[in-house]
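Board notes, transcribed. Complex of a protein with 5-O-phosphono-beta-D-ribofuranosylamine.
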Amino acid sequence: MAESPYTRDNPLRIGVLISGGGSNLQSLLDHCASGFIPGRISLVISNQADAFGLERARRFGVPTKVVPHSDYPDRLSFDRALISLLNDAQIELVCLAGFMRILTGDFVKFFKGRLLNIHPSLLPSFPGLHVQQKALDAGVRFSGATVHYVDEDVDTGPIIIQAVVPILPDDDASTLSARILKQEHRIYPQAVRLFAQNRLQLTDGKVHILESKINQEDYLLNPPWEG
Ligand code: GRF
């Protein structure tokens, strides 16, 4: 069994960085409250004062900070302000959840191995922005979502968990986004739970998950098998 120091009485202290609606933050809040994640969201930081995610955090009694990036002369000083807030709150794991700023190498190094991101595509396909439209334009039959460790590049770090969704003939970027988002709300809490349970082993840039049973017969076809 993987040994984890975290329990409901001694929860993993999680910091979440957002810029917008915060539906992934909501899912993390819900899954901490239910006990699925042996953790507590101890701080939510937004670079946008009007991010609805801030309201979601306040409803759960979670401390929030607004750190407008435009108040800082450069990326490094902005990131240093974030590091100091996260440090003061004794944050052990940082989750990016729709945080629309690229972090500096300094920030990434500081939280190396304890910094996660969620991205609405099956990485390494379609990194960056507007990825649902890019998947539609490419004509792929499946898309999905990825939770990964953050490294110094954008959307490239070691992958923890992925969810696959079919692309339907009349999808547009918004219907596809909604289908993907639904799965994001399942896989982000699961990734954080695996982290808190100490079941993620990083070796040579790849994540090995301890004590996880995978069904070898699982497969998906789109369009379906007609034989
Ligand atoms: C999600 O699609 C996430 O994958 C991406 O930004 C979006 C954030 O949505 N990084 P929300 O703010 O969590 O609702």
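The mean pLDDT is 97. Residues 20-24, 97-98, 118-120, 181, 184 surround 5-O-phosphono-beta-D-ribofuranosylamine (CB under 6 Å).
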